[in-house]
Amino acid sequence: MTLKLVGIGGMGLMLSPSAKHLKTGGPAQFLRIHDRGTRDARRDACREAWKAHGAEIVADYAALIGEGDYDGVVVCAGKNGDDCDIFRSIAALMQKHKKGRPFILHLSTVSAGFAQAAFNYFDAADIDYVNYPLTGGPLGAETANMLILASGSEAIYARLEPMLQTIGKPKFFSTGVTAGAEVKLIGQLMVFNGLVGICSAAALKSECFQEELSGADQAVFFDFLNGGAGGTRQWDVALSKGVRDDTWDQGFMIQHAVVDAIYAADLCRSRGLPALAVIPMAAIALTFAYLLTKYEGTPLSTHAIVREMIRKNAAGLDEFINRHILYTDLQASIQNAIAVLPEHVKDSVMLDITADDFRV
Questions:
Q1: Distance between CA 104 and CA 91 in Å, rounded?
Q2: Which of 81, 115, 184, 315 is an S-S bond match for 348, by CB 3.0 to 4.6 Å?
Q3: Separation of first and last alpha carbons in the chain
Q4: How many structural domains comprise the chain?
Q5: Crossing angle for the helix pair 216-225 and 179-208, nearest 10 degrees?
Q6: How far apart are CA 42 and CA 22, in angstroms?
Q7: What is the DSSP secondary-structure string of 225-291?
Q8: Same domain for 167 and 286?
Q9: Do 144 and 164 meet the contact criterion of CB atoms below 8 Å apart?
Q10: What single string gives the DSSP state of each residue in 205-239?
Q11: 186 and 65 within one domain
């Protein structure tokens, strides 16, 4: 049976490739895709792909929800603050036009607290909610190799699995509502600690050998050394772009990564992990915040932190972090990392969230 879906975030890098992966008569059909109207070549191509898939492009949530002629709403948009606004907008529409018990498939990376609050709110409204974060980046989405981190209702997962296997590689972890979000943030601990490790190595190589960060010889050096015991995928997927090609604005964008680092730090803190686990995440969040402030308006990816780690720039980064981090107060360190963010990023964090936040 083909699932009938409507989607929010269909012009983004992670959901848009679904248009080409899902074929007519397959496990799922998107009836309508919400479009905020931003015009550029990539999004125009997304629109055409969705139309070829058979989806109608609509400009508002009322048109998206329609008369409830769908099985589920797929949301792949932003962080807590962004998606809370979306859910607040569609909740009343879904309840008004509800046929049976529809579901929300939430593919965004949000905090574990968000996933629990959303479940509590929508379950009371007779709507199923599951959070299946994605990992693997745009390339994984394009090649249908992104990991889909599923949890919650086993019955919902069974309905969705054929579709999920078409667009990526799903794995069901637990019936716990927050398990998918927790697994994503566990992965982010690996990502960010690996990133700091490889960036520290590159900065030290530059200082020890009195060489520029970028260049062919540097790339050859780390291609070799990364094959040893200290190897990390962050060389291949992140820092190599800067060292090999002097490219700093492609990859995991800092304005998104900083929020994930905050969520990861807070999850470690809330689960009772030591400062050894929490403080590095708070420090990387502050480092990202520093770059967002220093290079305001300049698109930068996470590996750009290496440029602040060489000797001539290190003092500025140290001064900023030392001003805001408190090694004996983990929660304050996390809150300070939020407080120094640009307002539009700060609004997306929305760390403390309850079911009441979804009510109009």
A1: 10
A2: 81
A3: 35
A4: 2
A5: 120
A6: 19
A7: HTTSTT--HHIIIIIHHHHHH---SSSSBHHHHHHHHHHHHHHHHHTT--HHHHHHHHHHHHHHHHH
A8: no
A9: no
A10: HHHHTT--SSSHHHHHHHHHHTTSTT--HHIIIII
A11: no
Both tokens of 326, joined, read 């408190």
> Is the distance from CB of 91 to CB of 122 less than 8 angstroms?
yes
Return per-residue pLDDT of the chain as tens, 360 residues: 899 999 999 999 999 999 999 998 999 999 999 999 999 999 999 999 999 999 999 999 999 999 999 999 999 999 999 999 999 999 999 999 999 999 999 999 999 999 999 999 999 999 999 999 999 999 999 999 999 999 999 999 999 999 999 999 999 999 999 999 999 999 999 999 999 999 999 999 999 999 999 999 999 999 999 999 999 999 999 999 999 999 999 999 999 999 999 999 999 999 999 999 999 999 999 999 999 999 999 999 999 999 999 999 999 999 999 999 999 999 999 999 999 999 999 999 999 999 999 998
Identify whether 360 is part of a domain: no
Q: Which stretch of DSSP H or E encloses residue 118?
A: helix 112-124
What pTM value is reported for the model?
A: 0.96
Q: What is the DSSP letter of 301?
A: B
Fill in the amino acid letter for 153: S
Instruction: Please name every residue paired with 4 in a beta bridge, in sequence order, or none if there are none.
Output: 29
Q: Which domain holds residue 256?
A: 182-355
Report the C-alpha gap between 137 and 126 in whole angstroms. 33
What SS3 class is residue 44? helix
Q: Give the position of tokens 């996933």.
A: 115
Quote the CA–CA distance of 252 and 231 in Å, as a whole number.
Answer: 19
**Are 203 and 165 within one domain?**
no
Q: DSSP code of 146?
A: -
Longest dimension (CA), the chain: 67
Rounded to whole angstroms, the Cα distance separating 231 from 102 reads 45
